[in-house]
Amino acid sequence: MVTKIKPKDLTWWSSPAKLNLFLHINSQYENGYHQLQSLFQLLDYGDELAFEVNETGLITLADPISGVPDADNLIIKAAKLLQQEINSSSPQKLGCTIHLKKNLPMGGGIGGGSSNAATTLVVLNKLWNCQLNEQALAKLGLSLGADVPIFVYGKTAFAEGVGEKLIPTTLAEACYLVVFPNCHVSTAEIFTHPDLPRNTAKIDFSEYQFANTRNDCQKLVCERHVDVAKTLHWLLEYAPSRMTGTGACIFAIFEHRKEALKVQALLPNEMTSFIANGVNLSPLHNQIQSHV
Predict the structure, then answer these.
(1) What are the start and end residues of each CATH 3.30.70.890 domain in the chain?
(2) Is 92 helix (H, G, I), strand (E, B) or coil?
(3) Among 51, 135, 147, 271, which one is least packed by beta carbons within 10 Å?
(4) 7-169: what fold?
(5) Where is 104: in which H helix or E strand?
(6) Bridge partners for 101 per DSSP
(7) Would you please indicate which residues are annotated as catalytic (active-site) residues?
(8) pLDDT given at position 6
(9) Whole-prediction pTM value?
């Protein structure tokens, strides 16, 4: 039974951001990927996606993203990957038109594209009645990007391997001011750079403390992107702060939202920023669980 959605009754599904509270690069595999350790903190803020299911087999974006061909768009890739997965077992030619409200900056290191892909897999799995479990969806997601599985599982987690070995964890509540320095950092460029540290000793997650960890990409990115360095230096005056992922976003940690709002008000007008709470369960998965 296909769930059909009328355009006027679109249901908007969360595609949350994430932060890497730390990122240690332990070594590099022969295939070029990096062995790492990280702590993925999910946030209660992100993009939103809506899906109009059809039986034409066509998968399209209602509003294509400027500068991103459909063939390179992770949303389209995720939908087509799931479509291929179920084609052999379904006589219907299932397709969809996908709507996107883009709130997260691209190239910010906060998982926007990966989260979009995961939301697409999770929601279409439900709307197309695919009945794949989380492990199967995560495996599909991993083929699209190392960060996709964290959003498929939807739990804040400690990560190892290339980011796909996840141990769900519960973190104390915190509020984050996330600032985008309005520059784009190439993940591929950073991970292939010869000066990137690749020998950080592994830690036992039970001994994790923010102050005793770091982001191994941060120094290199700051050297190559002065706006990232300036933003980090500025935020450190007010709260513990760090770059997330390969950048360019910088986050500052606060106990209370009112403290984050005070600092946000001091930011230069041209800076893009948002305030979000850390959550242990993705808002998407709260929606999935409550959606009839």
Answers:
(1) 175-279
(2) coil
(3) 135
(4) Ribosomal Protein S5; domain 2 (3.30.230)
(5) none
(6) 48
(7) 18, 147
(8) 47
(9) 0.92
User: Is the separation of the CB atoms in 21 and 213 below 8 Å?
Assistant: yes
Three-state DSSP class for 108? Answer: coil
DSSP annotation string for 192-251: T-TTS---PPP--GGG--GGG--BTTHHHHHHH-HHHHHHHHHHTTTS-EEE-TTSS-EE
Q: Is 114 left (phi over 0), alpha (psi -120 to 50) or beta?
A: alpha
The token pair that represents 173 in the structure block: 């509540």
Q: Taken in order 260, 265, 269, 274, is the CA torsion positive or negative?
A: positive
The list of the chain residues with pLDDT below 50 reads: 1-6
* Eight-class DSSP state of 1: -
130-150 burial, b if ≥16 CB within 10 A, otherwise e?
bebebebbbbbbbebbbbbbb
Sign of CA dihedral 219, 225, 229, 232: negative
Our CA angle for 59, 150, 42, nearest 5°, is 105
Cα separation, 24 vs 216, whole angstroms: 6
Q: What pLDDT does residue 48 have?
A: 97
CA atoms of 236 and 232, how far apart (whole Å): 6
Range(s) within the chain of domains with CATH label 3.30.230.10? 7-169
